[in-house]
């Protein structure tokens, strides 16, 4: 069940990060919070597979260079990576209790 949920979530992340629309956030730097939260969940769900999922935060941000209406941002990538790393740590801690 967990793997199916993880696979669905990865597909959802791909869709959300690579659709040619410009997302808007009601708060300043809200997109950074969204990136952080998206990848925090990915890290938590996929922490046992973190070695294989680590390229995803880089790749999805990089691919936005080729999507109309989207832009690459090193700050978004940093939010992706920090969220992912914390999610992995939280997942590891939660499962190890």
From TrEMBL:
Signal peptide, first to last residue: none
Statement: the UniProt record of this protein carries the keyword Transmembrane helix: yes
Gene Ontology CC: membrane
Residue ranges of the TM segments: 74-94
UniProt domain VanZ-like: residue ranges: 29-91
Protein name: VanZ-like domain-containing protein
Location in the cell: Membrane
Coiled coil (UniProt feature): none
């Amino acid at each position: 069940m967990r793997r199916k949920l993880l696979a669905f979530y990865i597909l959802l992340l791909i869709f959300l990060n690579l659709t040619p629309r410009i997302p808007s956030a009601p708060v300043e730097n809200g997109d950074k919070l969204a990136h952080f939260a998206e990848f925090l969940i990915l890290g938590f769900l996929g922490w046992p597979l973190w070695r294989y999922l680590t390229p995803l935060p880089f790749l999805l941000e990089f691919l936005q260079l080729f999507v109309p209406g989207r832009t690459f941002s090193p700050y978004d990538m940093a939010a992706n990576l920090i969220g992912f790393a914390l999610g992995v740590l939280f997942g590891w801690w939660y499962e190890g209790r």
